[in-house]
Amino acid sequence: MEALDYTPLWDKAYAALRSAILEGRFSPGDRLLLRELAAKLQISLTPVRDAVNRLVAERVLERGAPGQGGGAIVPRMTADQLRELLVIRGDLEGRATSVAAARATPEDVRALEALLKQMLTVIQQNKLDRYLGVHRKFHFRIYSTTGMGMLEEMIDTLWLRSSPALTYVIPAYVPLLKGTDFHRAAVEAIKRGDPAEAEAAIRADIAQAGDYVLSLADQEGRLVPPRPATRGQQSDRPSA
């Protein structure tokens, strides 16, 4: 007989919502209504409310206004807030990548090469709703190689705060294969066992994507969604 899964429902709801945020399923300003979330997860309102309350306490979500079904809102981010996150992410993720390059095994490299191929395939097939999920797996495959659990947890928390704003890279930035050279450079440096070059590649990846999102800020310094890529932009897409 197999052991029963006694994980509380609210823990499962929290994990599901957290994963959805990390994979870019929600954008800044999105409303999360408890009844809709409960219906999607096929559970009762109580564990969903508990999960949302925890995410609000962690400042990942904001409390919804009265009349919004007791749910929450994905916070909108300012350019200054994103700049702060980018600095911290660059330092922590750069450090993690440097350690990973010194510790990676051939199996680790093969896993990264497979994930890089998946990212490129998703772009080529225009299945961009899947991109951020694979992109996250790629980065955290690097960070998990460090064997430094606390560092990985800190990076995970930063991604949770920044992931909604990073959905803005999908319409115009990702389809032009922006950043893929840095991903490839990171894998090649890890394969060579070159910590400095691997760190530089991941720092550049974070900085370039961040600069693009920052370019979307309005006159008040609030980040706003980009316009969809035009047909002309799509035709200029480089081949992988």
Secondary-structure element order, N to C:
HEHHEEHHHHHHH
Q: Supply the number of structural domains.
A: 2
What is the CATH first-level class name of the largest domain? Mainly Alpha
Low-confidence stretches: 231-240
CATH superfamily of the largest domain: GntR ligand-binding domain-like
Report on this structure.
With 240 residues, the protein is mainly α. The chain has helices spanning 9-22, 34-41, 45-57, 79-103, 106-124, 131-144, 149-166, 180-192, 195-214, 231-235; strands at 31-32, 62-63, 72-73. The chain folds into 2 domains: 9-73, Winged helix-like DNA-binding domain superfamily/Winged helix DNA-binding domain (Arc Repressor Mutant, subunit A, Orthogonal Bundle); 79-235, Up-down Bundle (Four Helix Bundle (Hemerythrin (Met), subunit A)), CATH 1.20.120.530. The chain contains 10 helices and 3 strands, in the order αβααββααααααα. A 3-stranded antiparallel sheet has the order 1-3-2. A hairpin with an 8-residue loop joins strand 2 (62-63) and strand 3.
